[in-house]
Design goal:
Blueprint (H helix, E strand, L loop, with lengths): L1 H7 L4 H12 L2 H7 L5 H18 L4 H16 L3 H15 L4 H10 L2 H7 L3 H5 L4 H16 L9 H6 L3 E2 L7 E2 L7 H9 L10 H17 L13 H25 L1
Length: 256
Amino acid sequence: LVYLLGRYSNLPKNWSILALIIISLDKQFWYLSTSAMLDIFLLVFLLLAFLSAYRGLKNPSWFLLSSLFLGFMASTKLYFTSLVAVAVCTLAILSTGSFKKFIQFIFSLIFYPVGFMLPYINSFLEGISLLDFLRFQRWLTHWWAGNSKVPFGGIFPMIFLNQWHTWWGKKAILPVPDWNIFWPISAGLAYLSPIFMKSNKLVLLTVFWIIGYLGFLTITSPFPRYILLLFPFWVVLALKSIHEAFTRFSHFQGRS
């Protein structure tokens, strides 16, 4: 999926393979891939949703799959992250200037609750009502809202300075488990990608995701594993920025 993200972002094959290698070498990626944490499944559904939304710009039937995968995200962990992804997809499609595509995506969101509730099918078959389901989601929402919050923007020291500002006990500042230098480097280079985002709609969608998800993390209590939903996009955008810079420099030299 990461390879496809690179290819659909107009990265050459070798660069897309390089993105896959960098992500595969990330310690946190390996840990979450072999642990009982649900974040790796969240990443899979997110990538599938974004790739499907991008394909939907040419064939609207892919929007149905995108909405379904977004619903699976909501059922995997607390639904707030999936709502951010829905807002990002909606904004990215709207920014293409095609009102028809925007309406088609909005109608496809009927599959969002299908994906959301489908994993609960056994519970429904055992007699759990829709009202019970909604009450459970309300309890999850209250649980999340009642958590202690770190100071605004606490996610950024975690990414760039290897500092985890905890919110329990003495509120110590701890080193981030599995932090590596690729986090700040790829994040920093990814911020150059808006220069090139008009060249590809998937790049635009990815930029919106990074901005939207980072905005969400600034108002909640972020754990280091939450960065998993950013790192693959950082790497692809960072490599795209480097590749585009090399290409433009080569063209400039050729004209000289």
